[in-house]
Amino acid sequence: MHVVRVSAVADADGMLRLTIPVDSAGGEYDLAVVLAPKPAPARPKTPDELGWPPGYFENVIGSIDDDTFVAPPRHPPRPVESIE
Description:
The protein is mostly loops. 5% of the residues lie in helices and 0% in strands. The protein has a domain at 41-70. The chain has one helix and no strands. The model has no long low-confidence stretch (mean pLDDT 84).
């Protein structure tokens, strides 16, 4: 006995048709079928569903509407020691 795993999609009429490969033509087989429906893929929640106000990320995060804004000067990076 061996297990054959087959994925299939039901037809529009709700019928699932299986074609299962076997070792020899004309042989007699006992068959056990276990139907395990695949769960629908979870879609990510929207920001609104997570409790964020509408348009929050489009209007706030990473946007500066002030044309006079100038980023402050940054310090030069510190030297990094060699790994060798």
